[in-house]
Protein backbone atom coordinates (compact mmCIF):
# COMPACT_ATOMS: atom_id res chain seq x y z
CA UNK A 1 0.00 0.00 0.00
CA UNK A 2 1.47 3.36 -1.06
CA UNK A 3 2.20 5.84 1.75
CA UNK A 4 -0.19 8.78 2.10
CA UNK A 5 1.40 12.09 1.08
CA UNK A 6 1.22 15.26 3.16
CA UNK A 7 -0.97 16.87 0.51
CA UNK A 8 -3.45 13.98 0.71
CA UNK A 9 -3.50 14.18 4.52
CA UNK A 10 -4.10 17.92 4.40
CA UNK A 11 -6.91 17.48 1.87
CA UNK A 12 -8.53 14.83 4.07
CA UNK A 13 -8.30 17.03 7.20
CA UNK A 14 -9.60 20.05 5.26
CA UNK A 15 -12.58 18.03 4.01
CA UNK A 16 -13.31 16.71 7.50
CA UNK A 17 -13.11 20.22 9.01
CA UNK A 18 -15.42 21.59 6.34
CA UNK A 19 -17.96 18.79 6.73
CA UNK A 20 -17.89 19.32 10.51
CA UNK A 21 -18.72 23.00 9.96
CA UNK A 22 -21.45 22.26 7.40
CA UNK A 23 -23.18 19.63 9.56
CA UNK A 24 -23.13 21.73 12.74
CA UNK A 25 -24.12 24.98 10.97
CA UNK A 26 -27.04 23.44 9.09
CA UNK A 27 -28.06 21.54 12.22
CA UNK A 28 -28.18 24.64 14.39
CA UNK A 29 -30.17 26.55 11.74
CA UNK A 30 -32.81 23.79 11.65
CA UNK A 31 -32.99 23.57 15.47
CA UNK A 32 -33.14 27.36 15.92
CA UNK A 33 -35.82 27.66 13.25
CA UNK A 34 -37.96 25.12 15.12
CA UNK A 35 -37.22 26.82 18.45
CA UNK A 36 -38.18 30.29 17.20
CA UNK A 37 -40.95 29.51 14.70
CA UNK A 38 -42.66 26.67 16.54
CA UNK A 39 -42.03 27.51 20.19
CA UNK A 40 -41.80 31.31 19.93
CA UNK A 41 -38.35 31.75 21.46
CA UNK A 42 -37.41 34.92 19.55
CA UNK A 43 -34.49 36.04 21.77
CA UNK A 44 -31.68 35.55 19.26
CA UNK A 45 -28.97 37.61 20.99
CA UNK A 46 -29.58 36.04 24.39
CA UNK A 47 -29.55 32.58 22.76
CA UNK A 48 -26.17 33.40 21.18
CA UNK A 49 -24.90 34.38 24.64
CA UNK A 50 -26.03 30.98 25.94
CA UNK A 51 -24.19 29.36 23.02
CA UNK A 52 -20.92 31.00 24.06
CA UNK A 53 -21.54 30.20 27.73
CA UNK A 54 -21.86 26.51 26.81
CA UNK A 55 -18.74 26.76 24.64
CA UNK A 56 -16.91 28.33 27.60
CA UNK A 57 -17.82 25.34 29.78
CA UNK A 58 -16.44 23.05 27.06
CA UNK A 59 -13.11 24.91 26.97
CA UNK A 60 -12.86 24.77 30.79
CA UNK A 61 -13.40 21.00 30.78
CA UNK A 62 -10.84 20.50 27.99
CA UNK A 63 -8.32 22.69 29.83
CA UNK A 64 -8.77 20.63 33.00
CA UNK A 65 -8.24 17.44 30.96
CA UNK A 66 -5.06 18.87 29.44
CA UNK A 67 -6.31 19.17 25.86
CA UNK A 68 -5.92 22.96 25.87
CA UNK A 69 -2.45 24.23 26.72
CA UNK A 70 -1.79 27.63 28.33
CA UNK A 71 -1.48 30.40 25.76
CA UNK A 72 -1.30 34.18 25.63
CA UNK A 73 -3.53 36.68 23.87
CA UNK A 74 -3.04 40.40 24.67
CA UNK A 75 -6.02 42.07 26.30
CA UNK A 76 -6.20 44.77 23.60
CA UNK A 77 -6.37 42.12 20.86
CA UNK A 78 -9.10 40.25 22.76
CA UNK A 79 -11.17 43.42 23.21
CA UNK A 80 -10.81 44.29 19.53
CA UNK A 81 -12.02 40.82 18.53
CA UNK A 82 -14.97 40.97 20.97
CA UNK A 83 -15.93 44.38 19.57
CA UNK A 84 -16.00 43.05 15.99
CA UNK A 85 -17.77 39.81 16.97
CA UNK A 86 -20.50 41.42 19.07
CA UNK A 87 -21.18 44.17 16.53
CA UNK A 88 -21.50 41.35 13.97
CA UNK A 89 -24.14 39.52 16.01
CA UNK A 90 -26.10 42.65 16.91
CA UNK A 91 -25.76 44.10 13.40
CA UNK A 92 -27.08 40.94 11.77
CA UNK A 93 -30.10 40.78 14.08
CA UNK A 94 -30.95 44.46 13.58
CA UNK A 95 -30.35 44.24 9.81
CA UNK A 96 -32.79 41.33 9.56
CA UNK A 97 -35.39 43.33 11.49
CA UNK A 98 -35.04 46.61 9.59
CA UNK A 99 -34.48 45.27 6.04
CA UNK A 100 -36.38 43.12 3.60
CA UNK A 101 -35.21 39.54 3.22
CA UNK A 102 -33.90 40.38 -0.25
CA UNK A 103 -31.66 43.23 0.90
CA UNK A 104 -30.54 41.19 3.93
CA UNK A 105 -29.34 38.46 1.55
CA UNK A 106 -27.58 41.00 -0.69
CA UNK A 107 -25.79 42.37 2.38
CA UNK A 108 -24.63 38.86 3.30
CA UNK A 109 -23.34 38.32 -0.25
CA UNK A 110 -21.32 41.53 -0.04
CA UNK A 111 -19.20 39.99 2.73
CA UNK A 112 -17.16 38.12 0.10
CA UNK A 113 -15.86 41.22 -1.73
CA UNK A 114 -15.30 42.95 1.65
CA UNK A 115 -13.27 39.94 2.87
CA UNK A 116 -11.30 40.00 -0.39
CA UNK A 117 -10.55 43.70 0.16
CA UNK A 118 -9.32 43.04 3.71
CA UNK A 119 -6.98 40.29 2.51
CA UNK A 120 -5.69 42.46 -0.33
CA UNK A 121 -5.01 45.43 1.98
CA UNK A 122 -3.67 43.70 5.09
CA UNK A 123 -2.20 40.44 3.74
CA UNK A 124 -1.20 41.69 0.27
CA UNK A 125 -3.11 38.81 -1.34
CA UNK A 126 -3.42 38.86 -5.12
CA UNK A 127 -6.24 37.02 -6.92
CA UNK A 128 -6.05 35.70 -10.47
CA UNK A 129 -8.69 36.55 -13.06
CA UNK A 130 -10.20 33.04 -12.83
CA UNK A 131 -10.44 33.26 -9.04
CA UNK A 132 -12.25 36.60 -9.26
CA UNK A 133 -14.63 35.31 -11.94
CA UNK A 134 -15.40 32.17 -9.92
CA UNK A 135 -16.26 34.29 -6.88
CA UNK A 136 -18.54 36.36 -9.09
CA UNK A 137 -20.27 33.21 -10.34
CA UNK A 138 -20.89 32.05 -6.75
CA UNK A 139 -22.41 35.43 -5.90
CA UNK A 140 -24.70 35.28 -8.95
CA UNK A 141 -25.84 31.73 -8.15
CA UNK A 142 -26.57 32.38 -4.47
CA UNK A 143 -28.24 35.66 -5.42
CA UNK A 144 -30.58 33.87 -7.82
CA UNK A 145 -31.38 31.34 -5.06
CA UNK A 146 -32.07 33.72 -2.21
CA UNK A 147 -32.73 37.31 -3.29
CA UNK A 148 -36.42 38.09 -3.78
CA UNK A 149 -37.95 41.47 -2.99
CA UNK A 150 -35.39 44.24 -2.39
CA UNK A 151 -36.28 47.36 -0.43
CA UNK A 152 -34.01 49.45 1.78
CA UNK A 153 -34.17 52.49 4.03
CA UNK A 154 -31.45 54.62 5.60
CA UNK A 155 -31.40 52.95 9.03
CA UNK A 156 -31.61 49.51 7.43
CA UNK A 157 -28.67 50.32 5.17
CA UNK A 158 -26.65 51.53 8.19
CA UNK A 159 -27.41 48.32 10.11
CA UNK A 160 -26.42 46.18 7.10
CA UNK A 161 -23.21 48.20 6.64
CA UNK A 162 -22.21 47.64 10.28
CA UNK A 163 -23.14 43.94 10.08
CA UNK A 164 -21.15 43.31 6.88
CA UNK A 165 -17.97 45.08 7.95
CA UNK A 166 -17.95 43.81 11.53
CA UNK A 167 -18.56 40.21 10.40
CA UNK A 168 -15.84 40.41 7.75
CA UNK A 169 -13.39 41.95 10.24
CA UNK A 170 -14.24 39.32 12.85
CA UNK A 171 -13.62 36.47 10.43
CA UNK A 172 -10.39 38.03 9.17
CA UNK A 173 -9.26 38.54 12.77
CA UNK A 174 -9.74 34.86 13.62
CA UNK A 175 -7.18 33.95 10.95
CA UNK A 176 -4.92 36.84 11.95
CA UNK A 177 -4.81 35.96 15.66
CA UNK A 178 -4.22 32.27 15.03
CA UNK A 179 -1.24 33.05 12.82
CA UNK A 180 0.28 35.88 14.85
CA UNK A 181 0.06 34.24 18.28
CA UNK A 182 0.33 30.57 17.18
CA UNK A 183 -3.07 29.78 18.70
CA UNK A 184 -5.02 26.63 17.99
CA UNK A 185 -8.77 26.83 17.53
CA UNK A 186 -9.30 25.53 21.07
CA UNK A 187 -6.88 28.12 22.48
CA UNK A 188 -8.57 31.00 20.68
CA UNK A 189 -12.02 29.84 21.78
CA UNK A 190 -10.73 29.57 25.34
CA UNK A 191 -9.84 33.27 25.22
CA UNK A 192 -12.82 34.66 23.31
CA UNK A 193 -15.83 32.54 24.35
CA UNK A 194 -15.97 33.68 28.03
CA UNK A 195 -15.79 37.36 27.06
CA UNK A 196 -18.45 36.98 24.37
CA UNK A 197 -20.72 35.01 26.72
CA UNK A 198 -20.44 37.65 29.45
CA UNK A 199 -21.11 40.63 27.17
CA UNK A 200 -23.95 39.01 25.21
CA UNK A 201 -25.75 37.70 28.31
CA UNK A 202 -25.66 41.23 29.76
CA UNK A 203 -26.65 43.08 26.58
CA UNK A 204 -28.81 40.34 25.01
CA UNK A 205 -32.00 40.60 27.11
CA UNK A 206 -32.18 44.38 26.62
CA UNK A 207 -31.47 44.17 22.88
CA UNK A 208 -33.98 41.35 22.41
CA UNK A 209 -36.64 43.36 24.27
CA UNK A 210 -35.94 46.34 21.98
CA UNK A 211 -36.22 44.14 18.88
CA UNK A 212 -39.21 41.99 19.89
CA UNK A 213 -40.92 43.92 22.75
CA UNK A 214 -40.83 40.66 24.70
CA UNK A 215 -38.91 39.88 27.90
CA UNK A 216 -36.75 36.76 27.96
CA UNK A 217 -37.55 36.18 31.65
CA UNK A 218 -41.28 36.18 30.87
CA UNK A 219 -41.02 33.45 28.26
CA UNK A 220 -43.07 30.32 29.02
CA UNK A 221 -40.25 27.81 29.49
CA UNK A 222 -41.44 24.22 29.25
CA UNK A 223 -39.74 20.86 28.91
CA UNK A 224 -39.76 20.78 25.09
CA UNK A 225 -38.51 24.36 24.63
CA UNK A 226 -35.75 23.84 27.22
CA UNK A 227 -34.70 20.65 25.41
CA UNK A 228 -34.48 22.59 22.12
CA UNK A 229 -32.46 25.36 23.81
CA UNK A 230 -30.13 22.74 25.26
CA UNK A 231 -29.78 21.03 21.87
CA UNK A 232 -29.08 24.39 20.21
CA UNK A 233 -26.36 25.18 22.77
CA UNK A 234 -24.80 21.73 22.35
CA UNK A 235 -24.63 22.02 18.56
CA UNK A 236 -23.27 25.57 18.94
CA UNK A 237 -20.12 24.19 20.56
CA UNK A 238 -19.31 22.39 17.31
CA UNK A 239 -20.37 25.39 15.20
CA UNK A 240 -18.12 27.82 17.08
CA UNK A 241 -15.17 25.43 17.08
CA UNK A 242 -15.54 24.44 13.43
CA UNK A 243 -15.74 28.10 12.36
CA UNK A 244 -12.37 28.81 14.00
CA UNK A 245 -10.88 25.62 12.55
CA UNK A 246 -12.08 26.41 9.01
CA UNK A 247 -11.06 30.07 8.98
CA UNK A 248 -7.66 29.08 10.38
CA UNK A 249 -7.20 26.58 7.53
CA UNK A 250 -8.99 28.28 4.63
CA UNK A 251 -8.87 32.09 5.24
CA UNK A 252 -11.95 34.28 5.58
CA UNK A 253 -12.61 34.55 1.83
CA UNK A 254 -12.61 30.80 1.22
CA UNK A 255 -14.75 30.35 4.33
CA UNK A 256 -17.29 32.82 2.90
CA UNK A 257 -17.30 31.26 -0.58
CA UNK A 258 -17.66 27.70 0.64
CA UNK A 259 -20.05 28.90 3.34
CA UNK A 260 -22.71 29.54 0.74
CA UNK A 261 -22.88 25.78 0.27
CA UNK A 262 -24.64 25.83 3.65
CA UNK A 263 -27.22 28.23 2.22
CA UNK A 264 -27.92 25.76 -0.57
CA UNK A 265 -28.13 22.84 1.86
CA UNK A 266 -30.57 24.77 4.05
CA UNK A 267 -32.78 25.38 0.99
CA UNK A 268 -32.65 21.69 0.08
CA UNK A 269 -33.41 20.59 3.65
CA UNK A 270 -36.25 23.11 3.78
CA UNK A 271 -37.64 21.40 0.66
CA UNK A 272 -37.56 17.99 2.36
CA UNK A 273 -38.88 19.17 5.75
CA UNK A 274 -41.30 21.93 4.76
CA UNK A 275 -42.53 20.97 1.29
CA UNK A 276 -42.05 22.24 -2.25
CA UNK A 277 -42.97 25.88 -1.62
CA UNK A 278 -39.40 27.13 -1.31
CA UNK A 279 -38.03 25.22 -4.29
CA UNK A 280 -38.80 26.29 -7.85
CA UNK A 281 -37.02 26.45 -11.19
CA UNK A 282 -35.07 29.67 -10.60
CA UNK A 283 -33.90 28.43 -7.18
CA UNK A 284 -32.64 25.17 -8.74
CA UNK A 285 -30.87 27.14 -11.50
CA UNK A 286 -29.26 29.35 -8.84
CA UNK A 287 -28.08 26.30 -6.91
CA UNK A 288 -26.47 24.80 -10.02
CA UNK A 289 -24.72 28.10 -10.86
CA UNK A 290 -23.46 28.51 -7.27
CA UNK A 291 -22.12 24.95 -7.05
CA UNK A 292 -20.32 25.34 -10.39
CA UNK A 293 -18.83 28.58 -9.10
CA UNK A 294 -17.61 26.88 -5.91
CA UNK A 295 -15.99 24.07 -7.90
CA UNK A 296 -14.37 26.65 -10.20
CA UNK A 297 -13.17 28.68 -7.17
CA UNK A 298 -11.59 25.63 -5.54
CA UNK A 299 -9.76 24.78 -8.76
CA UNK A 300 -8.74 28.37 -9.62
CA UNK A 301 -7.55 29.36 -6.14
CA UNK A 302 -5.42 26.21 -5.78
CA UNK A 303 -3.50 26.82 -9.01
CA UNK A 304 -0.14 28.68 -8.93
CA UNK A 305 -0.95 32.40 -8.93
CA UNK A 306 -4.62 31.78 -8.24
CA UNK A 307 -4.38 33.29 -4.78
CA UNK A 308 -0.95 34.26 -3.55
CA UNK A 309 0.72 36.62 -1.13
CA UNK A 310 2.70 39.45 -2.71
CA UNK A 311 5.02 39.87 0.27
CA UNK A 312 6.39 37.91 3.21
CA UNK A 313 3.96 36.15 5.52
CA UNK A 314 2.93 37.56 8.85
CA UNK A 315 5.46 36.52 11.53
CA UNK A 316 4.08 34.71 14.54
CA UNK A 317 5.03 35.67 18.07
CA UNK A 318 7.01 32.44 18.29
CA UNK A 319 9.00 33.36 15.20
CA UNK A 320 9.53 36.87 16.58
CA UNK A 321 10.96 35.43 19.80
CA UNK A 322 13.27 33.11 17.85
CA UNK A 323 14.39 36.04 15.74
CA UNK A 324 15.12 38.13 18.82
CA UNK A 325 17.11 35.24 20.34
CA UNK A 326 19.21 34.84 17.20
CA UNK A 327 19.90 38.59 17.17
CA UNK A 328 21.12 38.45 20.75
CA UNK A 329 23.35 35.48 19.88
CA UNK A 330 24.83 37.47 17.00
CA UNK A 331 25.51 40.39 19.31
CA UNK A 332 27.24 38.11 21.78
CA UNK A 333 29.42 36.68 19.01
CA UNK A 334 30.39 40.17 17.90
CA UNK A 335 31.23 41.16 21.48
Strand order of the largest sheet: 1-2
Helical coverage, percent range = over 70%
Biggest beta sheet attributes: 2 strands, antiparallel
The total beta strand count reads 2
Share in β-strands: under 5%
- What string gives the helices and strands in order? HHHHHEHHHHHEH
Query: What value does the average pLDDT take?
Result: 83
What is the straight-line distance between the termini?
56 Å
Uncertain residue segments: 322-335
Q: Which radius of gyration do the C-alpha atoms yield?
A: 21 Å
InterPro entries: Sugar_P_trans_dom, TPT_transporter
Pfam families: TPT (PF03151)
Transmembrane segments: 12-31, 43-66, 78-96, 133-150, 156-174, 186-207, 219-241, 253-275, 281-300
Keywords: Membrane, Transmembrane, Transmembrane helix, Transport
Amino acid sequence: MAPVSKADKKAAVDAAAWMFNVVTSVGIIIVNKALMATYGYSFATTLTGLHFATTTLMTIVLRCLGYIQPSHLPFTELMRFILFANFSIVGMNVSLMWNSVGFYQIAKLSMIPVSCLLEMVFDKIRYSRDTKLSIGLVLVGVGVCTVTDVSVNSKGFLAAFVAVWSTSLQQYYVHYLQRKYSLSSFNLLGHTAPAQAATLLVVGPFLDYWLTEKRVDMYDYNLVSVLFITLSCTIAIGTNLSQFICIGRFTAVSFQVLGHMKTILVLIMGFFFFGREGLNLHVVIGMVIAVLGMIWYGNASSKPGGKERRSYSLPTTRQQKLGAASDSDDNEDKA
